[in-house]
Amino acid sequence: MIGERPDGWKWAQSAGLSVAIHAAVLGYLIWQPSFDFLSMEQVEPLAAIEITAIMPEVAPELAATPAETITAPETGEEILQSDGGSETITSSSLPELTPSNPDPARLGTEEVLNSTIETGDPAPDKDPLPVESRPDAVPPDPRMLQLIERIRARLTEPCMLALPMMRGDGEMQLNVVSDSDRNITALMDDLTAGIDGEITRQAVLLDHSQCPAVTFVRRDQRYPVYALGIQLESQQIARGTALRGQINNAAGYYQSLLMIDENGIVHDLRRFLLNSTRVTRFDFSVARYMPSRDTHQMLVALATPNRPETLSSHAGATADEFFEALFAEVGQDALIGVSSFYVQ
After folding, report:
1. What pLDDT is stored for residue 160 in this prediction?
2. Which residue segment(s) compose the domain that 88 sits in?
3. How far is the C-alpha of 81 from the C-alpha of 268, rounded, in Å?
4. How many C-beta neighbours within 10 Å does residue 41 have?
């Protein structure tokens, strides 16, 4: 109103509020604080697995004959073709390898591999793929036959494999692979009770996401003695270092190698295989970018009359999707080998 004295206090309040707002905006622009603590849930990312090539080295006495080769016109070197480009192969030798799953030659190929079990799947239209006879096959140990019979009769747990093997000097070993360690000790005690001699026992822990791969290999009629042998230089490697090994008993077939990582992702390792007259060798490194876990990476070797289309269409998929498609395509018409390794 005219003649009313101005209220200086209200003007001071307005001025102070304006200064505070401008100071807060200026502070945010300078320091840009994070408000992640306001989010409801913090999700830890899955451990990333990266596979890189360290090409296999072949002993000079082995005549290297990769499945798909070309000859460099200038150097005459053999080059292994892969989806990711060409890799030059050099000559050297790998150290002596030890079996990481049953070697058919040590178990008696004729008697053991030709015995099959009822898998619950529809009966195949034809007999399982034949396995090449081995002149170094030895008569099966009666203790091993007893252990195999027990495994086939007693192991009913889902997502579990019992893999017997014979090592040097008549030593037996039993590996049990499972996504849970609760019942492994009791199962080992039950399977080995009363069998003469010492039996080395090893438990291998998988992640539940890898279980579809276990289901696939359990459907093989020859389980628990697979037709293919996988031998590794070591079953435990440091991150970023090489995993070296070989596949035995797959001559005459198209060979594939799959890695099922601890996140349940299937990797096609075909480009790291080098065929020779006797064995197929592989050499690759595995890198991980998260802390180590207790679970192992799983390897599945395949020998088939032709390359399965599933390898091209489903590589990189989850194990449940991949192995459902693979079994629908190949059924029992494949030779299988199984192993595992741990990345520190």
Report:
1. 95
2. 49-118+206-343
3. 14
4. 4
The one-letter code for the residue type at 331 is: G
Q: Does the residue 7 lie in any domain?
A: no
| Residue carrying structure tokens 């799953």 | 101
Question: Other C-beta atoms within 10 Å of 97: how many?
Answer: 18
Q: Please compute the mean of the pLDDT values over residues 276-288 and round it to a whole number.
A: 87
Residues 175-198 have pLDDT tens digits of 999 999 888 999 999 999 999 988
Q: Do 223 and 331 contact (CB within 8 A), yes or no?
A: no
Label residue 288 left, alpha or beta by phi (over 0 means left) and psi (-120 to 50 means alpha).
beta
| Residue 153 clears pLDDT 80, i.e. is over it | yes
Specify if 301 maps to a domain.
yes
Nearest 5 degrees, angle CA 251-CA 257-CA 263?
160
What CATH number is given to the structural domain containing 278? 2.60.40.1930
- Residue 287 falls within a domain, yes or no? yes
What DSSP state is assigned to residue 232?
A: E
How far, in Å, CA of 199 to CA of 327, rounded? Answer: 33
CA distance readout (Å), 94 to 97, 274, 318: 8, 13, 32
More confident residue, 264 or 129: 264
Candidates 97, 101, 129, 136; CA nearest to 113 is 129
Distance CA 13, CA 22 (A): 15
Rg (C-alpha) for the chain, rounded Å, is 29
Is residue 170 within 8 A of residue 198, CB to CB? The reply is: no
Q: Is residue 160 part of a domain?
A: no
Partnered with residue 327 across adjacent β-strands are none
- The helix or strand, by DSSP H or E, that contains position 184, with its residue range, turns out to be helix 184-192
Q: Which amino acid is at 335?
A: L
User: Which one of 50-54, 71-75, 117-121, 228-232 scores highest in mean pLDDT?
Assistant: 228-232
Question: What is the C-alpha separation between 344 and 342, in angstroms, rounded?
Answer: 6
d(CA 205, CA 183): 12
Pull the structure tokens for residue 248. Answer: 């035995």
> What are the phi and psi torsion angles at 145 (to 5°)?
-60, -40
CA distance 9 to 327: 83
What's the total number of domains in the chain? 1
